[in-house]
Write a structure and sequence with these properties.
There is one protein chain. This protein is mainly alpha-helical. It has 2 domains: 106 residues, no CATH class; 259 residues. It is built from 19 helices and 2 strands. The longest helix has 27 residues. It is globular and about 65 Å long.
C-alpha cells in the first residue's frame, strides 16, 4: 500500500497483491507488496517456527541475517502493543523474538518457549524492554565477531591454514553495524541497571519474579559478551532473590510468574557451572533453599538449552565444594578427601542416563538417542571434575578413557542439532583434561563449530581458558599432579569464568 498511510493494526486489514483498483480515485492503479514487507519463510522441519510477533521496522538484512540454520521472521503491520516504540527498540525486539529466543531453548515450538512470553510484557515494564534490547544488540554484535582466528590456534598456538576452524571463520555483518549494535547494547544495559537499582531499593513494592527475570537476562547478556567476571554479581543477586520466592497464590499468576521455573532453573545451573572454576569458601548451597529447587530443575530439564541432568548437577556442586575445601586442609586429611571424592564418583557413575532421557522427554522421541549421548558426555565430564577436585586423586584414575568417552558421545551430536548448545561444558572439560594433541585439536574444532551455531562470547572464553589450562600444565611439568591439576591451577588465578 503506497498511499503513505501507516496501518495501526486495528480492524480488518486488506492487502492487494498485484491487484488493480476498478473504481474510485485509485482506478487503474496496481498495488504490489513492498519487498521489505515480504515475510521470510523457513522449512517446515525447522523448530524455530513459533509465535511470530508483528513488527514493522526498517530492518537492514545485513544486521539481522543469521546463518542458514535459522531464518528470522518479520511481518507487518505494527502490533498495537509496539507501535509507540522507536524503530531501534522494535528492531531489537524483533531480533530477540526471531533469533535469540531460539538460542535459549532446545525445542523452539509454539507454546514451549517461555522467553517469547516476555515480549508483550515489555510495554508495561521498561526495565524488561531495555535488558531485552541489550541482549539482542549484544547478540548482533557478537555474531559479527570473527571465529577463533584471533583466539585459538593449533596446540602450538598457530592454527594451520587448512584447519576447519579457519574454514568456518567468517564475518557475518559489517563492522559499522557491529559497532552500532555494541553501543546500543551498552546504552540499553545502562538504562536497565539504573531501573534495576531503583527496583531493588523498593523491593517490597516490586514484583520479585520480574526482577529475577531481569537478572537472568543480565547474566545472559554477560555470557553473550564473554562470560568473564561480571556475571557473578548477577548470579549471587539472583540466588538471594530466589531464596525469598514464595509459592504462588491463585490471584498472583502473571505472565512473568508463569516462567518462574525456567528462570529459576537457568539461574541455578549458571550458579553451579560458575562455581566449578571459582575459588570461594562462601558458596550458597542452592539445594538447601526453602523452595523445592530439585523439582523446579527437573521440570525444566526437557527444554533448557543447558540440558544438564539435575542429579549430575547436584553431584557437580558437591564436587565444587570439595574442590574449595581440599586446598585448605592439611595432608593428614587426604584419605578422607579421597573417600568423599570416591563417593561422589560412585554416585555420578550410577546415574541411569537412559532412564533419565526417556523420562525427561515424556517417552521415546526422535531426540531421545541424542539426549542420551549428551547426558553421557556430561556424566563423564562430571567424573573428570570430581577427580580434579582434590589434590591427590585415586591411583586407579583413567581420565584419558573418560575423555575418549566424551569425544565418542559428542560425535553423535551434529552442530546443527539443538542439543549441541548443551555440549560446551563437557567439550571444555575434555579438552582441558587431555594431553593428547589430537584430542586437544578436536576440542578446538568442536568449540569452533559450536561458535558458528551459538555465537555467545562464553564459547570463545572456553577456548581461551582451555588453552590457559594447557599452558599452565605444560609449564609446570611434573609438579602438575602434585597441585591437583588444571581445576586448582585455574582457580588459583582468581578469575571468574562461566562456561555453560
Amino acid at each position: 500500500m503506497k498511499t503513505g498511510q501507516e496501518c495501526l493494526g486495528y480492524g480488518k486489514l486488506f492487502i492487494w497483491n498485484e491487484g488493480v483498483a476498478s473504481r474510485g480515485k485509485m482506478m487503474g492503479k496496481t498495488y504490489t507488496t513492498p519487498n521489505h514487507l515480504q515475510p521470510l519463510t523457513t522449512s517446515a522441519r525447522d523448530e524455530g517456527v513459533s509465535r511470530v510477533w508483528t513488527f514493522s521496522c526498517d530492518v537492514n538484512p545485513n544486521i539481522l541475517k543469521r546463518n542458514d540454520l535459522r531464518a528470522p521472521l518479520y511481518m507487518t503491520p505494527i502490533d498495537p502493543l509496539f507501535q509507540d516504540m522507536d524503530n531501534p527498540s522494535r528492531r531489537y525486539l524483533c531480533h530477540f523474538a526471531t533469533t535469540l529466543c531460539e538460542d535459549l531453548v532446545i525445542s523452539d515450538v509454539p507454546n514451549e518457549n517461555p522467553f517469547r512470553s516476555l515480549i508483550p510484557t515489555c510495554r508495561d515494564h521498561p526495565i524488561l524492554l531495555h535488558i531485552i534490547a541489550a541482549n539482542a544488540a549484544m547478540h548482533i554484535s557478537s555474531m559479527n565477531r570473527s571465529s577463533f582466528d584471533s583466539h585459538t590456534g593449533n596446540i602450538q598456538g598457530q592454527l594451520s591454514e587448512s584447519s576447519s576452524t579457519n574454514i568456518l571463520s567468517r564475518t557475518r555483518y559489517s563492522t559499522d553495524s557491529s559497532a552500532s549494535a555494541t553501543l546500543d547494547a551498552l546504552s540499553a544495559k545502562q538504562k536497565a541497571i539504573h531501573l534495576l537499582k531503583a527496583a531493588l531499593d523498593n523491593l517490597s513494592s516490586t514484583d520479585i519474579n520480574l526482577i529475577v527475570t531481569v537478572i537472568l537476562l543480565f547474566i545472559n547478556l554477560e555470557l553473550i559478551d564473554s562470560g568473564k567476571n561480571a556475571w557473578r554479581a548477577h548470579v549471587e543477586g539472583a540466588m538471594k532473590l530466589i531464596s525469598s520466592l514464595k509459592p504462588f497464590q491463585n490471584d498472583q499468576i502473571s505472565p512473568i510468574a508463569l516462567i518462574r521455573d525456567r528462570i529459576t532453573s537457568d539461574c541455578l545451573t549458571y550458579h553451579v557451572l560458575g562455581s566449578t572454576l571459582t575459588k570461594s569458601t562462601t558458596f550458597l548451597d542452592p539445594f538447601s533453599l526453602p523452595i523445592d529447587i530439585t523439582t523446579i530443575l527437573r521440570r525444566s530439564e526437557a527444554n533448557s538449552y543447558l540440558s544438564f541432568p539435575t542429579t549430575l548437577l547436584q553431584i557437580l556442586f558437591r564436587a565444587c565444594e570439595l574442590s574449595n575445601t581440599a586446598v585448605t586442609l592439611p595432608a593428614t586429611e587426604t584419605p578422607a578427601l579421597i573417600n568423599e571424592a570416591s563417593s561422589l564418583l560412585n554416585a555420578a557413575q550410577s546415574f541411569d542416563v537412559e532412564s533419565w532421557a526417556r523420562n525427561v522427554e515424556g517417552g521415546p522421541t526422535h531426540r531421545t538417542p541424542n539426549r542420551i549421548h549428551t547426558a553421557l558426555a556430561h556424566q563423564n565430564a562430571v567424573c573428570i571434575y570430581i577427580y580434579r577436585s582434590i589434590a591427590y586423586y585415586p591411583a586407579n584414575m583413567d581420565s584419558e578413557a573418560l575423555v575418549t568417552e566424551i569425544i565418542h558421545h559428542l560425535s553423535f551430536i551434529d552442530p546443527k542439532d539443538p542439543l549441541s548448545k548443551a555440549t560446551s561444558w563437557p567439550t571444555f572439560v575434555a579438552g582441558a583434561e587431555t594431553d593428547n594433541p589430537v584430542y586437544r585439536q578436536w576440542a578446538l574444532d568442536r568449540l569452533s563449530l559450536l561458535w558458528n551455531v551459538l555465537p555467545w562470547g562464553y564459547v570463545q572464553t572456553a577456548v581461551e581458558v582451555m588453552q590457559m589450562a594447557w599452558r599452565l600444565r605444560d609449564e609446570s611439568g611434573t609438579d602438575y599432579i602434585g597441585v591437583g591439576g588444571w581445576v586448582q591451577q585455574l582457580k588459583a588465578l582468581g578469575n571468574h569464568w562461566l562456561i555453560a
